[in-house]
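tool_call predict_complex ligand=S-adenosylmethionine
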Amino acid sequence: MNVFTFLAPFYNIIFSSVQKRQGKELLNKLSPLKGKKVLDLGGGTGKFAAQMFSAGADVWLLDASPQMLKRASRILPSDRLILGDAKNLPFSNNTFDIITLVDVFHHIRNQEDTLSECYRILRPGGSLCLLEFSPECLTIRVLAGVERFFGEPSLFLSPEDLTGLLKKAGFIQIEIQYILVDEYVTQAKKPMLQSP
Ligand SMILES: C[S@@+](CC[C@H](N)C(=O)[O-])C[C@H]1O[C@@H](n2cnc3c(N)ncnc32)[C@H](O)[C@@H]1O
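tool_result ok
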């Protein structure tokens, strides 16, 4: 059974201040969001998706945990919430302007497939934004050990390794910014002109 099955009822209480801090940081980076079609992949209880919704984005949230989605349904329209797996996204090619993965990528076992899927469903010129944690920091290595104990893959990547995967999937203009000593945001683009 998935760790988020148990965490869902307490998630917003435990992570309230982290969600607020990260949400503020990411909204700054992604604005203006008005009119943009956005997928919050692994959006969990929907806190960040709701912030993007309030900022005028046309937001969708996909998550693998029914329990997390149930929480999200309290603050987002239920027709925007999709139960699914990041490695096989139920959207047509070239659908979204922006895809966000906040504290999600290291939970995903099929990371390469997930990036290929994100690339496929982003519009040419669209942006991918990932918030992740650096395994170079001791705190994150300890966190990885704890998460693995609970059955999570905890595949924390360094910015260099994440950049390598993004390039392999076809992304360009990859920019990394540390927002805390162990926490970084990566933004990357799908090219406007695609090679045949
Ligand atoms: C740490 S939570 C982060 C939730 C939210 N992004 C936030 O910042 O509050 C990680 C989320 O990723 C989801 N997740 C993990 N693996 C997934 C996958 N393969 N496909 C879709 N969602 C996944 C989990 O169900 C969980 O809701």
